[in-house]
Amino acid sequence: QMELRLYSWCFQSARVTQIKRKVTSYEGEDVSLNCEYNTSLSAPSLFLYIQFTNDYPEYVLLKDVIGPANFDDKFKERFDAHLNSITKSVPLMIQRLQLSDSAVYYCAHLN
Fold first, then answer.
1. pLDDT score recorded for residue 6
2. Domains along the sequence of the chain with CATH
3. What's the CA dihedral at 85, 6, 32, 3 to 10 degrees?
4. Are 94 and 31 in contact (CB under 8 A)?
5. Residue 70 DSSP code
6. Which end of the chain is more exposed for a tag (fewer CB within 10 A), N or C?
7. Closest Cα partner for 105 from 15, 18, 4?
8. d(CA 14, CA 110)
9. Is the per-residue pLDDT at 13 higher than 80?
């Protein structure tokens, strides 16, 4: 089994915080990365980006209160996210973890 580490970082300036800074899991497992947000908006929008080693952050998804998450095509198959306006959190679920998922994940709130 291969151990993978997923780092979830969030932009503090956007009033988004992290529940877990580092998640360790194994290839093939399902994992959840969670970000919380704080806003007075009734319909917030959150963005998620992924940054691989020595590369620029790239867009993964946009999630708001209404409708499904708007994913980049290459993340649609195994990634999912739901915005919970009561707990003010957005867990990113990754199914069947792969070595290539090991990266830094950024979430940001759109004011």
1. 47
2. 2-109 (2.60.40.10)
3. -170
4. yes
5. E
6. N
7. 18
8. 7
9. no
Give the C-alpha separation, 87 to 54, whole Å. Answer: 34
For residue 33, the number of C-alpha atoms closer than 13 Å in the C-beta half-sphere is 29
Model confidence over 89-100: pLDDT tens digits? 888 899 999 988
Residue type, 29: E
Q: 7 phi and psi, to 5 degrees? A: -105, 125
Q: What is the pLDDT of residues 51-73, one digit of tens each?
A: 888 898 888 888 877 777 778 88
Task: Give, in order, the Cα–Cα distances in Å from 47 to each of 57, 92, 96.
Answer: 12, 11, 22
Q: Is residue 10 predicted with pLDDT exceeding 60?
A: no
* Integer-rounded Cα radius of gyration of the chain: 13
Q: How far apart are CA 56 and CA 27, in angstroms?
A: 24
